[in-house]
Amino acid sequence: MLYTSKPDLTTKSQMDYFQKTFYYLYILVVAINFSPSKLLGYFTPLIFVGGIFLIWPSEKLFRKLFIVLLLSGIIITFYGLIFPYVVVQNACLMLITYSSFITIIVLPAGMLVSEILFHKILAFNQKLLLIEGSIGIIQAVYGFTVNKTFRGSNGDIVKGTISPTLFSFDSSIGSRIFSINMCFLCLLALVAVLRFRYRPYPLIVAFTSILLACVVHINMFLIAAGLVTIFINFAHFIKKQPKLLIILLAFTGLALSILFSLKVNMPQLTEQVTFEATSYGGFQPKIIITNEAFSVIPKEYPAMPFIGLGPGQFSSKASLIGSGHYFGGFYNPQHIPLLTPKTSAPMEKLLMPLWAASADPHLVLSSSMEPFYSWLSIYTEFGLVGSFIVISIVAFFLIKAKSLQRINSENLLDNFIFQIGVLFLFFLGYQETYWETPQAIFIGLILLKLLYAKLIYSK
């Protein structure tokens, strides 16, 4: 049986050529995604799949990639034919922004089944967690010497090696990308520590750095994913033992209290909320655009609720990049080679004014209030059809994982971690356009693919 114990990694590995290629490309992806280059981070899936084709050319992989690209082309052509406002450039950009998922679809799970590969990645992740977590803690301590607190905006400095200067207080997406990657890595580290008796120190250090980063929504999504997974798998036990529900609620309350005690400085929070509630007449971009998606947009574009406005035509990361205002900020955009800034008619009319107002440097807005996030992008650009497909895919993997528990009960921990990872990824779509940010989710997707391969092929 595979994965029953920790193998001796000092001996010559038994990985085949594909698995060796996968392992070294994974290290390359990690190096890029933990670097300060956000632009390069968008190309890590392309680098990964390109490296596999270059070093290990396969007709099967090429066929799968061809089918995915062909379907994408058919979808773009379909929307281009029925909607005259479609900007083809922005639709094609989705092949880059969603390349994380395309790459994971193309990779054959069966070829990733290797005890040596799995443990080599576990061992590498242990070192990565220790290094990045230690840097994050050092950054938080430095921030404390300046701000005299570990709470609130002090977490903005915790970015690990993603920070270009290591000690930068800018409130960019860096700390969020750092926290998401560390959460995915910590999930797999739980398998390493609890099942295979790896040393717990890297996990403890990494978890501490995540708390110090103070990105509350990411921590809350992880907790929510864990709770939903517990209810999915143990609902019948909870019904028989109400005390378990009380324990879960108490644990949740304690976890949230710890998170908010790190994040919230009450006088500062009260001042910020008051400012946000009074500025621009109670300006809430996320609420406004969500309301418009269900009320205003369907009146002007009746087909939107059913099939959407088209890929890259409204609030997706592809549409934001295609507008020319994403990199560098709305009012100080950076020119991207080979990109001609363009926006579709519905985006220009309904989203751009709201985005411009929310990007006002005098307005204090968190990522929770920005007028774009992945759930909204799927609905506005692909309609109920796209939303149903996404929810069905998530449900499929959860049901599949639960069904595998009856086949192989020895992988229960791995199974739970996989379910938590899938739900965590799904919940991230509520906050921001994380699904279209490979630097944030591609490492996590690779690890989930490894776990999935392990679950379905371990007998």
Explain this structure to me?
The chain is mainly alpha-helical and 459 residues long. It is 68% helix and 0% strand. The chain has helices at residues 17-33, 38-41, 44-55, 59-82, 88-97, 99-106, 115-147, 174-194, 201-213, 216-240, 242-263, 266-278, 285-294, 296-300, 304-307, 317-322, 345-358, 374-407, 412-428, 438-457. The radius of gyration is 22 Å and the shape is globular.
Distance between the termini: 6 Å
Number of domains: 1
What characterizes the major β-sheet? none
- Return the average pLDDT rounded to an integer: 84
- Which descriptor suits the 3D outline? globular
Would you report the number of β strands? 0
Low-confidence runs? 263-281
Task: Work out the helicity level.
Answer: 55-70%
Compute the gyration radius: what is it?
22 Å
Give the H and E element order: HHHHHHHHHHHHHHHHHHHH
Strand residue content: under 5%
**Tally of helical segments:** 20
Assign the structural class, choosing from mainly alpha, mainly beta, alpha/beta, alpha+beta, or little secondary structure. Answer: mainly alpha
Quick rundown:
With 459 residues, the chain is mainly α. It has helices at 17-33, 38-41, 44-55, 59-82, 88-97, 99-106, 115-147, 174-194, 201-213, 216-240, 242-263, 266-278, 285-294, 296-300, 304-307, 317-322, 345-358, 374-407, 412-428, 438-457. The protein is built from 20 helices and no strands.
